[in-house]
Amino acid sequence: MTDLLPPWPLLSAFMLASLVLAITPGPGVFYILARSLTQGRRHGMASVAGVALGNFGNAVGAALGLAALFAVSSLAFTVVKFAGAAYLVFLGIQALRARQPEPDGSAPPPERLGRIFRDGFLVALLNPKTALFFAAFLPQFMMPQGSVVGQSVALGAIFLAIAALSDTAYALAAGWIAPRLKGLGGLRRAGRWLTGGSFIALGVLAALASRRGTTP
Q1: Per the confidence metrics, is the pTM higher than 0.85?
Q2: pLDDT of residue 69
Q3: What pLDDT is attached to residue 206?
Q4: 133 and 24 Cβ atoms separated by less than 8 Å
Q5: Contact 102/153 with Cβ under 8 angstroms?
Q6: Which residues are CB-contacts of 162 (< 8 A; sequence separation ≥ 6)?
């Protein structure tokens, strides 16, 4: 395992840089916050797990050369980029059309955790800039004598563990706030529009983004 990780001074710098990048909001964080605020802590944690698995898929893809394909093939990048953007817009429309509490005050049934997990996975996986980010960021901390694929996966796993902890903090904080908003019907309606509008806006921005930016 030691040949897959850089010396401690370089590894500690990698972990610090990873923490700074992990707490920077992106599509995954917005998805987690939206689910946690509108549906509570359990759904927020399901979204954390889905986003983490999707990001891990991108880390492995970068290690196996997927990022190199995106870097040289405009068509491959564009197809995945628009697929991800379309899915974000789809989630936004779903949020806007979500069932509201019944006139007697009873809440609609919550969405299944499996569906929340799946949506988080796809939001993270269908973001080709994440694979490009891993391809640009991880080599700065890799040793030339080690296995490229092995080091990429090991460093990617450390980054994703740090990101998962950061995302969990976001989910727990938003989940703590969520019950305090339940009795405020106006705020709940506003939250639905904010959630849907945020997903649609993220989808539009993702569709318009170029390959130059590498922050996931």
Answers
A1: no
A2: 77
A3: 67
A4: no
A5: no
A6: 15, 18, 19, 22
